[in-house]
Amino acid sequence: MYNFEYQRAQSVADAAKALGAKEEAKLLAGGMTLIPTLKQRLAKPSDLVDLGRIAELKGIKRDGNAIVVGAMTRHVEVATSDLVKSAIPALAHLAEGIGDPQVRNRGTIGGSVANNDPAADYPAAVLGLNATVITNKRKIAADDFFKGMFETALAPDEIITAVSFPVAEKAGYSKFPNPASRYAVVGVMVARTGGQVRVAVTGAGPVVFRQKDMEAALGRSWSADAVANIKQSAAGLNSDIHASAEYRAHLVTVMAKRAVQAAG
What we know:
single chain, alpha+beta, Uridine Diphospho-n-acetylenolpyruvylglucosamine Reductase, domain 2, 5-stranded antiparallel sheet, 14 strands, globular
């Protein structure tokens, strides 16, 4: 681990000021990705700005027809929230399957979304549920947020403060997890909200994406049979020691069917 300056922010404004003051400063949320990266000397930030004590970034609330989750809310809190379970059960189910108990008790939704790991679960929820990512500067629609592998629409001095999830009429999430890390080899979120159907796929490609053919099929008939014969192209999908691109393409259909069944 390289040397760095540690700063404990007391407010979002305080964190933004510290982040903007140094070009190589990084935010520290749960640290589930950043700390191992630092230990392996794969990153060399000049400063770490800790968000852990900022109360305004924590908590879950209902705002009209949406569930708003503060950026520093831990995975375990989303998984066990009675509010989330009653309004968007699929979101609670997704959070419950992230990593292991240690990760769920330290990792945060804001950190996961900002990091945008191609095999993370939350990007599928954000894109599939058509969520809005709220920052200290603006609101970013899900379709505009995820740009590429570990790349988002966030500016260098921009901080996620919350994620707003519309309450879906039906939603389900299913993933084929890596047995060691519990990251998604392939995960699929399906949702119907206000008559619109969305299908988001994580783990399969270098960035979370929507499966438009499945969306159209489910728009005509909400059933697992509607997506059973839709084949995902393997072109451009991830291929590694865990699964080939062709196997991931097959899993997209399998996980989509299971997600629809879970949604009811």
